[in-house]
Amino acid sequence: MSKNVGLVLEGGGVKGAYELGALIALIEKGYTFSAITGTSIGALNGAVMASQGIEKLAEYWEEAKYCPVFDFDDDTVARFRQKDFDLDLIIATGKKLLSAREIIKESYDHTLEFVYNRLSEADIRASSVDFGCVTYNISDMEPFEAMKKDIPEGKLIDYIVASACFPIFPPKQIDGKKFIDGGVYDNMPINLLARTGCKKMIVVRTNPDSKQPKRRIEQSDLDILYITPSANLGRAMAFSPERIENLKQLGYADALRIVTEAENSAQTVAAD
């Protein structure tokens, strides 16, 4: 595999720290990225990588270790996403939601401030690295998948924020339409990247192989290397300094192992 590849970053809240570790390993191994697509935290990570690079991404994750984010388990979030409501779910989460209203608002406001103060639309557009993200338009009940050239001027950061608009947060309003986390449609935007003509790509997952992507891969001639967690990464919204550091270290170790194995295998085939 050429070391100049496309990159896909899966969504997953705090599990984006795993992606940071994987990216550090990939860059150490000499990989560069021609284009990046991401969903949710993958879109945020991807936007920083495309415009500012790995050092800034690592710096922002250091800051994120101390961001107040509310803790919901992944099963509860998944059920809300799928509209799988029942009385038990409502009762079980009701007190948590009521007591957490101010925490959620504070977390949302802090997240918006954090993102808008650190991402520059001009820098993302000027970068030689292409970038795209996925969000979901709940006003028209349709996905929004776009590379930066297809996103209206002045709206790029809005759509990145919309991609990461986790279900516990209010929908992001853009031009009178409401948008939510792109993970409800495509948490692993391989197809968006492939439509640009990119054939060789690395996909950094935040979920195990057993969790299949929501969308079928449209093209059969893609050369994809998956960086897949060797352990369950846990809750998407359980932020803590220790957890972020542990996820980063696991991502680094997994990516280093997987890439080294792939390169050794390719060398063996070439020798034969």
UniProtKB/TrEMBL annotation:
Pfam families: Patatin (PF01734). It comes from the Bacteria. Keywords: Hydrolase, Lipid degradation, Lipid metabolism. A motif (GXGXXG) lies at residues 11-16. The keyword Metal-binding does not apply. PROSITE patterns: PNPLA. The active site is at S40 (nucleophile), D181 (proton acceptor). CDD domains: Pat_hypo_Ecoli_Z1214_like. InterPro entries: Acyl_Trfase/lysoPLipase, NTE, PNPLA_dom. A motif (DGA/G) lies at residues 181-183. Coiled coil: none annotated. The keyword Glycoprotein does not apply. Residues 7-194 form the PNPLA domain. A motif (GXSXG) lies at residues 38-42. GO terms for molecular function: hydrolase activity. One of its GO terms (biological process) is lipid catabolic process. PANTHER family: NEUROPATHY TARGET ESTERASE SWS, NEUROPATHY TARGET ESTERASE/SWISS CHEESE D.MELANOGASTER. This is Patatin-like phospholipase family protein.
